[in-house]
Write a structure and sequence with these properties.
alpha+beta; 16% helix; binds iron/sulfur cluster
Protein backbone atom coordinates (compact mmCIF):
# COMPACT_ATOMS: atom_id res chain seq x y z
CA UNK A 1 0.00 0.00 0.00
CA UNK A 2 1.08 3.55 -0.73
CA UNK A 3 -0.09 6.80 0.84
CA UNK A 4 -0.11 9.54 -1.76
CA UNK A 5 -0.43 13.28 -1.36
CA UNK A 6 -1.71 15.70 -3.97
CA UNK A 7 0.00 18.77 -2.58
CA UNK A 8 -2.00 21.02 -4.91
CA UNK A 9 -5.10 20.12 -2.88
CA UNK A 10 -3.52 20.46 0.57
CA UNK A 11 -4.81 23.52 2.39
CA UNK A 12 -2.81 23.02 5.57
CA UNK A 13 -5.64 21.98 7.86
CA UNK A 14 -3.28 19.57 9.60
CA UNK A 15 -5.98 17.02 10.41
CA UNK A 16 -4.19 14.18 8.70
CA UNK A 17 -1.25 13.86 11.06
CA UNK A 18 -3.09 12.79 14.19
CA UNK A 19 -4.28 9.42 12.86
CA UNK A 20 -0.89 8.66 11.30
CA UNK A 21 1.99 10.54 12.92
CA UNK A 22 4.46 7.98 11.56
CA UNK A 23 3.30 8.54 8.00
CA UNK A 24 2.70 12.29 7.76
CA UNK A 25 4.53 15.32 9.07
CA UNK A 26 3.38 18.91 8.92
CA UNK A 27 5.63 21.70 7.78
CA UNK A 28 5.86 24.97 9.64
CA UNK A 29 2.72 26.24 7.89
CA UNK A 30 0.72 23.09 8.60
CA UNK A 31 0.99 21.59 5.15
CA UNK A 32 1.36 17.85 4.95
CA UNK A 33 4.54 16.05 4.01
CA UNK A 34 4.53 12.32 3.48
CA UNK A 35 7.11 10.53 5.59
CA UNK A 36 6.51 7.06 4.19
CA UNK A 37 5.02 6.75 0.71
CA UNK A 38 5.17 2.96 1.03
CA UNK A 39 3.10 2.20 4.11
CA UNK A 40 5.01 -0.15 6.40
CA UNK A 41 3.36 -3.43 7.45
CA UNK A 42 0.74 -2.80 10.11
CA UNK A 43 0.24 0.80 9.07
CA UNK A 44 -2.62 0.19 6.66
CA UNK A 45 -5.43 1.22 9.01
CA UNK A 46 -3.58 4.39 9.96
CA UNK A 47 -3.00 5.21 6.31
CA UNK A 48 -6.69 4.80 5.50
CA UNK A 49 -7.68 6.90 8.51
CA UNK A 50 -5.17 9.51 7.44
CA UNK A 51 -6.59 9.70 3.94
CA UNK A 52 -10.17 9.78 5.28
CA UNK A 53 -9.32 12.62 7.66
CA UNK A 54 -8.47 15.11 4.95
CA UNK A 55 -11.42 17.38 4.22
CA UNK A 56 -9.90 18.33 0.89
CA UNK A 57 -9.26 14.80 -0.39
CA UNK A 58 -5.58 15.58 -0.76
CA UNK A 59 -4.53 12.16 0.48
CA UNK A 60 -5.35 8.75 -0.90
CA UNK A 61 -4.19 5.21 -0.47
CA UNK A 62 -3.33 2.99 -3.40
CA UNK A 63 -2.90 -0.75 -3.48
S1 LIG B 1 -5.69 17.26 6.26
FE1 LIG B 1 -5.49 17.46 4.03
S2 LIG B 1 -5.42 19.61 3.64
FE2 LIG B 1 -4.96 19.29 5.80
S3 LIG B 1 -2.73 19.16 5.96
FE3 LIG B 1 -3.53 17.11 5.72
S4 LIG B 1 -3.44 16.74 3.52
FE4 LIG B 1 -3.32 18.93 3.81
Amino acid sequence: MKLLLDSTRCQGYGLCQEPAPDLVALDEWGYAQILAVVVPPGGEDAARACADSCPNSALRVEG
